[in-house]
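Researcher: First entry.
Model:
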Amino acid sequence: MIKIMKAMNEEKMEKTVLQTLEKLEKLGLDETLPAELSWCWNSFVADKNPVGLIEKSQKAHALLSEKKAVQPRAVSQKLLDDLEKVTRAF
């Protein structure tokens, strides 16, 4: 049962990371962050070490929050909330 719940959490995290990557690329907020976040996600899947994923997710959250402050409709609050949950999942 715990493994199923953990897998569901990883599925939710994966969905959030993919949505974040898409939004970062669409808005062009950072040239390297999408690639770094993608690499950290794949690394996390392989070794379950969340350090890089947390760091890059926090950076993405900060950038997207700044964008939302300037253009409220550019970034959904749900994405920001989900991204914050990724950083708190560990």
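Researcher: Second entry.
Model:
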Amino acid sequence: MQTDAAAPAAPATPALPKKEVGATHEEIAALREELQRLRERVTLLEKAISAAPAPAPPEPPQADTLMVAGKLHWLHRAKEDPPLPSLSLPDPIHEKALVHNLRVLSGNQISIRSAAGDETARRLAERFKELFTEAEWHVDGVAELPLHQREKGLALAAGVLPPSRETTRTYLAFTAAGFALESRLDTSLQLDETMLIVA
């Protein structure tokens, strides 16, 4: 009668040296401390979020903002008509429309800058200053501004996005009067500052 041979014994797992076992215990303890610190931070964040006041609902648009578009003078161009030349003085029709629109939006302030070293841009900027002053706006400028040669035409710069109410209304006044304006963000400006750039 044959008997089954005994199965070979599994090789014994080598024991870790005492030094390595001690290091492992220290690492585990350090990880547990770090985990506890993270849990405490999460708890503090949850308390701070729950204690923060709920954001206030946006204010409804004011009546004068809703009605302003209907008070402006709009100059419509036919599709085949060329746009106004960027660095030529506007004709009396566009000037009259712009002054009217700026008066509708009176009480604001604007800074006017012209491209440094460009006499044509300076003359046009000075003319815009006269129109803003006629519309009873407070004007800062005209001063020269160093610009890249590729920056040409009229631009309206704001210090924040979305632009402030004043910047938006200024843009609307120019657009309704038939002027093409480029929008720019200039973080060096104050949050409520609007700058007209002529280049």
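Model: Note on the second entry: The first strand starts at residue 109 and ends at 115.
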